Predict the structure.
Amino acid sequence: MKQLFVTCLTLVSLYLPASAGHVQDSLNAKGQSPASHTFSIRYGAGLISSKVYDVASGREYSSRFGQEAQLEYQCVFSSGYGFGAIGAYNSTGYPGSTLRQLYFAPEFVMGSPRGGCWQWSWGIGAGAARYSEEDGSKWGIGFHTRLGVEYLFGKHVGIGLDLSALNGRFSDDKNNDYYKDRANGIARYALTIGLRFHL
């Protein structure tokens, strides 16, 4: 699964700059702006793929589905490259507790400026990550990558589907036997759908 995801992102990264340049030629001919600004709000499912120990139930879970919500801003220039920022929230329930995760990060973006009904975008970044549960919370550093496709209904509104991978790394609890031989991190995948607003 991870190898297939990385392969898809690599292929898209090779395709997007050429595609963005072709679209920009059309935009310039029409006298449109050389930069595309997009705000998006998305909701969907998140899958925690890391092993998580539920203290209340005394069991270890290798994977678990939860709810995912994301907010994002992107600015893509005529070159097909740009920047953005993303915020993500995940809530995953276990029998004895609920694991909540927050993530905020800037990102490097590749995509196509406005032109045509279909749009593609890809992003990667690193930022602040936090998880919380009934017995405490921790801050750490997180990493993400995202691949999205969008269909435009009009000049300013579209609907998009995004697949993202997020990984939060947190400090080890050296007083907890469970973490002595394990990396203290939480990885998840998310599939979200939502509206995109173009300025």
Remarks:
- The helical segments are 2-30.
- Residues 97 and 134 are 6 Å apart (CA to CA).
- Confidence is low (pLDDT under 50) at residues 4-32, 177-183.
- The longest helix spans residues 2-30.
